[in-house]
Design brief:
Layout lengths: L1 H14 L27 H19 L8 H15 L1 H4 L3 E5 L6 E3 L4 E5 H6 L3 H16 L2 H26 L2 H38 L7 H19 L19 H11 L11 H20 L4 H11 L6 H14 L2 H17 L4 H13 L3 H14 L6 H10 L5
Parallel strand pairs: 1-3
Antiparallel strand pairs: 2-3
Length: 404
């Protein structure tokens, strides 16, 4: 039985390709391979995966979380096509989802999902191009199919090993099975990390050959590190470790990615444009909604970091309003005083920003300044008489002696 488990353990390591550590050298990433034409699924496994994804895409097309803004969708798709080339881009269908987390996915049938939380955290066209190029790299390398086969191989081995263990029933057999299970799951996690590194290599290769600054890819991960540190600090937690890999991690650590992406960027690309102004203009109509979604996550430190980074190019009424909402939501007395100050700055920049008057009024009332708060709420109702909370605000005004 011991020999059989040893053989299974060896087979588990051999069966899953590319489980070894990647060999990324500190030199610019090579250009992507020549385009081989529109890909068609090969074999039973891949055809099955494509059919599943086709069904998933049909459901996605009718999902209420899909953002159907033509201008935003055209802009994001335009960045993808500029990055990977029009010939490659024609095999992809992009969907922007209003989901406030940093993520994007790529399906074997060419369905790319971009989450709004990613767009909120991206600061430039070059950063967005790096992320979209990475996702396309997964598609071009057929990573989903390889991952499916690796998982199936590993779980098949564990199934047979479980049968053999139950037949033996000995303590040593169970110990050997646990060793095998750890080896398989750890190998699958390492396999996923290697796929991520390979997609990173392709993504930065696309940027190196384009007009945008390739070093922006590294900045994405450095900003995520800073956000995570701010989030942890606000919660009173220990600073996360961004340089070491946990055994079951499916992605490389952020610190490692930031370092090797910078090393893989073309040296002559440092002086290229990053398209920050174009990106800000494209995102502007949705910025308030995306910030509201982020604040609703109740991550004070992370949300404050995002707002402050957005304000590096100048504070706007919408950013002051968002910061006011963030502090008012936490609700400490000092937070409410700060919130009133932030709302006041928003109103000073844009006297017609109804939501700022609402937040200002509620914050002032809670800090004992009822007369000023009532006036702010009355201004809110005047600016937005059809507001969904008009009845509640009217009751609040009435309770402190005001009139609608």
């Amino acid at each position: 039985m011991k020999r059989l488990f040893a053989a299974l353990l060896s087979l588990a390591v051999v069966a899953a390709p590319a489980w070894g550590a990647p060999k990324v050298k500190p030199k610019p990433a090579p250009p992507p391979p020549p385009f081989a034409g529109i890909y068609q699924p090969q074999g039973v496994d891949e055809i099955g995966l494509w059919r599943e994804d086709d069904e998933s895409e049909r459901a996605l097309a009718n999902s209420p979380v899909v953002i159907r803004d033509e201008a935003l969708n055209a802009y994001v798709r335009g960045v993808l096509c500029e990055t990977v080339g029009l010939d490659r881009c024609n095999s992809v269908r992009t969907y922007i989802l209003r989901v406030p987390v940093f993520n994007a996915t790529m399906s074997p049938n060419g369905t790319m999902r971009i989450f709004s939380g990613l767009l909120l955290r991206t600061r430039s066209e070059a950063e967005l191009a790096a992320l979209l190029g990475h996702e396309f790299g997964h598609f071009e390398k057929r990573h989903t199919l390889d991952g499916f086969k690796a998982h199936r191989t590993g779980t098949d081995l564990l199934s047979w090993a479980a049968v053999l263990t139950s037949m033996s029933g000995g303590r040593q057999s169970y110990a050997s099975f646990n060793d095998l299970r750890l080896s398989v799951y750890g190998g699958l996690a390492r396999f996923g990390r290697d796929q991520e590194r390979e997609a990173d290599l392709l993504g930065i290769g696309y940027l190196n050959g384009g007009p945008l600054r390739p070093h922006s890819a590294s900045r994405v991960w450095r900003n995520l590190i800073l956000e995570a540190e701010a989030s942890a600090a606000a919660r009173g937690l220990r600073k996360p470790d961004f340089d070491h890999i946990s055994f079951f991690a499916s992605h490389p650590p952020d610190g490692e990615r930031a370092d090797y992406l910078y090393a893989l960027a073309a040296p002559d690309g440092e002086g290229r444009e990053d398209g920050a102004d174009r990106y800000a203009a494209a995102l502007a109509p949705w910025l308030t909604a995306f910030l509201d979604d982020q604040i609703a996550l109740n991550d004070f430190g992370g949300s404050e970091f995002i707002i402050n980074r957005l304000a590096e190019s100048g504070w706007t009424a919408d950013l002051w309003r968002a910061r006011g909402d963030l502090f008012r939501g936490r609700g400490h007395r000092r937070d409410l005083m700060n919130a009133a100050d932030f709302y006041g700055k928003a109103v000073a920049l844009n006297p017609d920003l109804a939501e700022a008057h609402r937040g200002l009024g509620l914050s002032l009332i809670k800090t004992g300044r009822a007369t000023e708060g009532r006036a702010a709420l009355e201004r809110y109702l005047k600016l937005k008489p059809d507001a969904s909370d008009a009845a509640m605000i009217g009751m609040t005004i009435a309770s402190i002696g005001g009139t609608q």
